[in-house]
């Protein structure tokens, strides 16, 4: 009978982890990121990040990572179970360990992201104590140095904050935007983040007799495509607007900005609903085929008390 033990991941686990994760998305014509970044995860583990595995004798049966994003927010990612050990309740067991650790670091909420087509992942998240939070989609304007917004675009951080605080987009997204440090994570937008973006010329506020929308560039990064060629991405933490005209001007500003940083491609987080997606489509901007779901776990529950 196999004995399972949840423990902190070690560099020596790499071969076993790669062996059961390299074909994770093979049926979706995609590849799992974990084989590429496992060593980076281990090297980055510390007070704000911890990677866990389930040891099964000489094998590894599961993996997950927890990251502290702010004083009260944590992020769970990379939950994978070795197919040889499915049905043993390991996803719940390892998630509990990761979220208890996050609670010990002071977090009161942990979130994760699940592809909308990943029904098993959604079910596993619910079993692990996560509840539905929000959903989003990617808008992908083409970088264009000649793009010209029809409405004025400024960079007043407090105007963007006031707009966000009262916006339908904030309500739909539960106040969440892409995190500035952890890729693929979302965290609560703060006034300070907008001021930082304005100071660094990354904030775009659409105005026309009042504030009509905003976005800000989160980061620029390089990633190889399926052919192995490096592609430069400009990532925008959120897109929010009042109406179609504001949407068009906002995405024109982002297309121009993306070109200014020599980006090949872009992605902008937008709320998932017919309103938001159809505005983007009517603006002749590409949209991802499917939404992504964000789940949230209340870490003040007894389940996550480490005592």
Automatic annotation (TrEMBL):
Short name of any one Pfam family annotated for the protein: Acetyltransf_1
InterPro entries the record matches: Acyl_CoA_acyltransferase, Bact_Acetyltransf, GNAT_dom
Any one Gene Ontology molecular-function term assigned to this protein's record: acyltransferase activity, transferring groups other than amino-acyl groups
N-acetyltransferase domain residues: 4-154
Keyword tags: Acyltransferase, Transferase
Top-level taxon: Archaea
UniProt cross-references to PROSITE patterns, sorted A to Z: GNAT
UniProt-recorded name of the protein: Acetyltransferase (GNAT) family protein
Taxonomic lineage: Archaea, Methanobacteriati, Methanobacteriota, Stenosarchaea group, Halobacteria
